[in-house]
Write a structure and sequence with these properties.
Number of helices: 14
Radius of gyration: 20 Å
CATH topology of the largest domain: TIM Barrel
Distance between the termini: 42 Å
Shape: globular
Structural class: alpha/beta
CATH architecture of the largest domain: Alpha-Beta Barrel
CATH superfamily of the largest domain: Aldolase class I
Strand content: 5-15%
Helix content: 40-55%
Oligomer: single chain
Strand order of the largest sheet: 3-4-5-6-7-8-9-10
């Protein structure tokens, strides 16, 4: 058991509360509307979806759009990935124009199309390059550089204590570690013991955040009290559930769970999310499609909900989706 004294967590000049909750960068999930909702519900620091350095350099519209930031979501980190030193350095200048608070490097994405280019978790096979890239980016900007990574490529190559130390030595200002190897993808359980080893290394003085399987307030508390980490990065538990941050903070404060989110609250949040998505995309159909992946979670646990979910994810017009929301209110609230 770690007895933690209340302490401000600092990333460069950015001050965060004791044991901050971070919204993980998730592709096609952590866009500006969703980040804003999570921020409102208690997230202390939010990260963009990961953005391809090559895409930014080629001025790809999709990559550029991901650089959008709302003032109300600060502090916010823009996360980029790539394995080419020149490209990553050039990217810094482009990213700086969006005025993020932090630039985060993704050394953890396990997806094949990213890994096959040596980026994301692919770089775990080349720790020297990982350190070199981080070093070059630190030298390129005054913004704090942070890193998100995994324990290692596979169970036989876990050197995360040494890796974290080397990243810190070249100026990385915080590290978030997902407690799985690349070989595990998202299977099995996240092993937080290795993350605790990083935190307990006497040489480490930057914040060490844990990621992976923080899916209940109890688990967040365990990460804080049993493993002694500096904060929790929340990923999948927040999808369609921006309240998760508020639930964790309430549990920390009182030791009790917040009352169940009502159907009316779920509908209201889903409606707002959809409208914000349409406004951001400036395109109704795209906004409707972007929000679909959240509906299963917004309405998780409601019995006999299948037909309504089906309608939500197959309707192309916002009005049709709003009509389904109203039906849900009438039927279940």
């Amino acid at each position: 058991m770690h007895t933690k004294i209340n302490v401000l967590i600092k990333i460069g000049n950015i001050e965060l509360p004791d044991f901050p909750l971070l919204l993980a960068p998730m592709e096609d999930v952590s866009d500006p509307p969703f980040r804003a909702l999570c921020k409102e519900q208690g997230a202390d620091l939010v990260y963009t979806e990961f953005i391809s350095s090559e895409g930014l350099i080629r001025d790809a519209a999709k990559s550029r759009k991901k650089l959008d930031i709302y003032e109300k979501e600060r502090p916010v980190g823009i996360q980029i990935f790539g394995a080419n030193l020149d490209s990553m350095i050039k990217t810094v200048e482009i990213v700086e124009q969006s005025k993020p608070d932090i630039i985060d490097i993704n050394f953890g994405c396990p997806v094949k199309k990213v890994v096959s280019k040596g980026a994301g978790a692919g770089i775990l096979k080349d720790i020297d390059l990982m350190v070199k890239l981080t070093d070059a980016m630190v030298k390129q900007t005054n913004l704090p550089i942070t890193v998100k990574t995994r324990l290692g490529w596979d169970v036989d190559s876990i050197k995360i204590v040494e890796v974290a130390e080397r990243l810190q030595d070249v100026g990385c200002k915080a590290i978030s570690i997902h407690g799985r190897t690349r070989a595990q993808m998202y299977k099995g359980e996240a092993d937080w013991r290795f993350i605790a080893e990083v935190k307990n290394n006497q040489r480490m003085h930057i914040p060490v955040f844990g990621n992976g399987d923080v899916n209940t307030p109890e688990r967040a508390m365990e990460m804080r009290d049993e493993y002694g980490l500096d904060g929790a990065m929340i990923g999948r538990a927040s999808i369609g559930n921006p309240w998760f941050f508020k639930q964790v903070k309430h549990f920390f404060k009182t030791g009790e769970h917040l009352p169940e989110i009502t159907i009316a609250e779920r509908v209201a949040m889903a409606k707002r999310h959809l409208q914000m998505e349409i406004d951001w995309k400036e395109n109704e159909i795209v906004g409707v499609m972007e929000t679909r992946r959240h509906y299963s979670n917004y309405f998780r646990g409601i019995p006999h909900f299948k037909e309504y979910r089906l309608k939500m994810v197959t309707s192309d017009s916002a009005q049709a989706v709003y009509d389904v929301f109203d039906e849900v209110l009438q039927k279940f609230a």
